[in-house]
TrEMBL record:
Keywords: Lyase. Pfam families: OCD_Mu_crystall. Its EC number is 4.3.1.12. It comes from Halomonas cerina. This is Ornithine cyclodeaminase. It comes from the Bacteria.
Length: 315
C-alpha cells in the first residue's frame, strides 16, 4: 500500500486535457450502464456548519475503485482553514486490497468538480463562447474558469459575490491569469452578456432567475449538492430548452430538481453521461438555452483517483 500526500498529488494531477479525458470517460461509462454507483452517504454536523459525504463507484473492467470521504466545513475560512478537506482510498477491483491512500485534502475533488463543469460546457455551450459569468468567489469560482479554458476560448469573466471584497479579490487573482474581469453588484447585470453562467455558491435560496438568462446561454450549477441547498429558481429550469444533470436521482434529492419534489417534472431530464455516450446534441441552435446541474458523483471520484494513482505510480 502506498501513501501519497497533497503536494505529490497536486504535482502529478493538474487541470489538463488528460485529466479531463479521464473524468469524461467515467461519465461515458456511467451513461453506458457500466458503473456500479451506490447512493451518497451524507452526514450533517450542524453545530459547526459542516457536512461529510462518502462517495464511491466501480467502473466495470477498471483495475481500481475509490472510496472518498469528503468533509465540508463552511465556517473554516473564518479560522484561516480551507472549507473542504478529505481523502480517497483506492482499492484493487480484483482483490479488494488497498492499493493507496490519497491524502489529497480535497484537491482531487476540486479537480474533478472543475473538470465536470468543463465537460458540461464542452457538450452544451456554444462553441464560440468567450464570456463567462461566475456567481461566487471561492476556489471553485476560480477553478471552474480555469477548466473552462480547456474547452472554450474564455477571455472575459463577469463576477458577482455576496461580499464585494471577495469579488474584488477574485477579480485581482483572475486578472493575473490574463483574463478581463468585471465585478458586478447584482446578478442581472453580471449575467447580461454571458455565454456561460457558472453558479458556485453554498446558497440555500435561489439566486439565478429565468429573467437573468441571455439568449443562447449555457448554465452550469454546481453548488447545490445537499437537500438544503439551491441556486436556481424553478423558472430557470422550466425556461431551459435542455436540462441535464449528472444523475437524476441525485438531482432530485440533492440538486436542483428537488424543487419539483412530490410533483411530476414538467420537462425531459437528460443525464450527462448518457448524452456523452450516445453523442446526443441538445444544443439545436445558437439561441438554445441549456442548464446542467452537477451534484458530484462517485464515478468522478473513482475516475480521478485512478488517473492520479497512475500518474503517481508512473503507470
Amino acid at each position: 500500500m502506498q501513501l501519497y500526500h497533497h503536494d505529490a498529488i497536486e504535482h502529478a494531477v493538474r487541470l489538463d486535457h488528460d485529466a479531463l479525458a479521464a473524468v469524461e470517460a467515467g461519465f461515458a461509462a456511467l451513461g453506458r450502464g457500466e458503473v456500479v454507483q451506490p447512493p451518497i452517504l451524507s452526514m450533517a454536523i450542524e453545530e459547526a456548519n459542516g457536512e461529510v459525504d462518502v462517495k464511491t463507484a466501480h467502473i466495470r473492467g477498471a483495475e481500481r475503485f475509490a472510496i472518498k470521504v469528503s468533509p465540508g466545513f463552511f465556517d473554516n475560512p473564518r479560522l484561516g482553514l480551507p472549507s473542504l478537506n478529505g481523502l480517497m482510498l483506492v482499492f484493487s477491483a480484483r482483490t479488494g486490497l488497498v492499493e493507496a491512500v490519497l491524502f489529497d485534502e480535497g484537491y482531487l475533488t476540486m479537480v474533478r468538480t472543475a473538470l465536470a463543469g468543463a465537460i458540461a460546457a464542452k457538450h452544451l455551450a456554444r462553441e464560440n463562447s468567450r464570456r463567462v459569468t461566475v456567481l461566487g468567489a471561492g476556489e471553485q469560482a476560480r477553478r471552474q474558469v480555469a477548466a473552462l479554458r480547456l474547452v472554450r476560448d474564455i477571455d472575459c469573466v463577469d463576477v458577482w459575490a455576496r461580499r464585494r471584497e471577495g469579488a474584488e479579490a477574485y477579480a485581482e487573482a483572475m486578472r493575473a491569469t490574463g483574463l478581463e474581469v468585471v465585478v458586478h453588484d447584482d446578478i442581472p447585470a453580471a449575467c447580461a452578456r454571458a455565454d456561460i453562467i457558472v453558479t458556485t455558491t453554498p446558497s440555500r435560496t435561489p439566486l439565478l432567475q429565468a429573467r437573468d438568462l441571455p439568449e443562447g446561454v449555457h448554465v452550469t450549477a454546481m453548488g447545490s449538492d445537499s437537500p438544503d441547498k439551491r441556486e436556481l429558481d424553478a423558472s430557470v429550469l422550466t425556461r431551459a430548452d435542455a436540462f441535464v444533470c449528472d444523475t437524476r436521482a441525485q438531482s432530485e434529492t440533492n440538486g436542483e430538481l428537488k424543487v419539483f419534489a412530490g410533483t411530476e417534472v414538467p420537462f425531459k431530464v437528460h443525464e450527462l453521461g448518457r448524452m456523452i455516450a450516445e453523442g446526443q446534441r441538445l444544443r439545436l441552435t445558437e439561441a438554445t438555452i441549456t442548464v446542467c446541474d452537477l451534484t458530484g458523483t462517485g464515478v468522478q471520484d473513482t475516475a480521478i483517483a485512478g488517473f492520479a494513482l497512475s500518474r503517481l505510480a508512473g503507470d
